[in-house]
Amino acid sequence: MAWLQPQDAFDPDQHPQRVLGIAAQLGRHDSGMHRHGRAQLLFARRGCIHITLADQLCLLPPTRAAWIPAGVTHRAQMQGIVDYRSLYFDPDQCQGLLQQVQVLEVGELLAALLERIAQADLATDWSKGSGPHLVALCLDEIARARREPTLLPLPKDRRLAGLDMALLPPALGVLASQVGASPKTLGRIFQRETGMGYQQWRQQWRLLKAIERLAAGDRHSAIADALGFASDSAFVAFFKQMTGLSPLAYLGA
């Protein structure tokens, strides 16, 4: 069984097998910025994982998985206890698969395949017996999985370097006065550097923060108040519009 303890060091690039899987439970863990020579599928069975990339933030909610292509520099941070599974694939097995970091919905079949590979011994040769079929099915399920809207591109303009990502971003007019730029200029910066208008970007930030707080067990009223919604119902309506699900259904999906 490839079950890692908190004190264990693990480098997937040091193992000869073309497919690897691990299982672990960690709390208050920070991987630091790093990258692998292999593609990674990181599945949060319980708890949230914050993934920082060069130009975006990613929230990995419970019961979802993040696909991280080979060679992508990233940092994984866990505040509370996170029960996770991680699979690693040689890049030549993933040609034509997802080329960018994506957060994916994990259905029953993909979850079962993840568990089967993650719980196997690290020395397992997945090129023998039923191994190739299981790996091929797993990669096919990854390719078919629905994408989740939990990525937030980051602006690079130096005037926005002081924007505190832990706090609710201010209204556009307030931000403009803080950084000394006109609202129109800021709007153009966000559109150019994130692909979103400022209000759309701000709503995406609210969604990520809402999911994080829901996973932590916060009440709707507390989340609505913290994120600037007029009422619980306004928050629920926003969440449904952004995800297609109610907050309760999203965590139970």
Automatic annotation (TrEMBL):
GO terms for molecular function: DNA-binding transcription factor activity; sequence-specific DNA binding. Keywords: DNA-binding, Transcription, Transcription regulation. InterPro entries: AraC-bd (IPR003313), Homeodomain-like_sf (IPR009057), HTH_AraC (IPR018060), RmlC_Cupin_sf (IPR011051). The keyword Transcription regulation applies. This is HTH araC/xylS-type domain-containing protein. Transmembrane segments: none annotated. It comes from Gallaecimonas xiamenensis 3-C-1. It holds the Pfam family AraC_binding. Residues 172-253 form the HTH araC/xylS-type domain. PROSITE patterns: HTH_ARAC_FAMILY_2.
